[in-house]
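User: Let's play a game. I give you a shape written as tokens, and you guess the letters that built it. Ready? Here's round one.
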């Protein structure tokens, strides 16, 4: 059973964002599987780097949508993104230093962060985009 099981309750009601989230969930599931399978550190690190890259591009995507649609809470939302990115950057530094950062706790942390963020901040953004899509007259 995958660590994160996608279901409709996780949809924010805006397809391009949902597509990013599904891919992120898939990548976190892959990291979980790799850890459980005892895969090589090279493979696990590569998987984590994909998560880092996808997280960054997804955050820019949402921030672009917030900007283009006049989302009122964009500052706090972008701040939450920045905080996770700082944690990921820190982890990447530890990986480079050869520290053992890949644990089930880390995967649980990523899962919880992602689900909690989707269900709170991203849902609010999705609701906003449903009535005020980017580029629509305000
Ligand atoms: Fe977000
Ligand atoms: Fe998101």
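Assistant: Ready! My guess for every position:
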């Amino acid at each position: 059973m995958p660590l994160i099981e996608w279901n409709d309750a996780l949809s924010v009601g805006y397809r391009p964002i949902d597509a990013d989230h599904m891919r992120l969930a898939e990548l976190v599931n892959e990291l979980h599987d790799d850890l459980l399978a005892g895969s090589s550190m090279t493979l696990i690190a590569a998987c984590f780097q994909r998560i880092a890259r996808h997280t960054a591009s997804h955050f820019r995507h949402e921030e672009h949508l917030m900007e283009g649609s006049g989302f009122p809470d964009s500052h706090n939302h972008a701040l939450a993104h920045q905080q996770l990115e700082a944690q990921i950057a820190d982890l990447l530094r530890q990986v480079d230093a050869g520290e053992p950062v890949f644990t089930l706790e880390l995967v649980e942390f990523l899962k919880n962060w992602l689900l909690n963020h989707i269900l709170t901040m991203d849902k609010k953004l999705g609701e906003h985009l449903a009535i005020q899509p980017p580029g629509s007259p305000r």
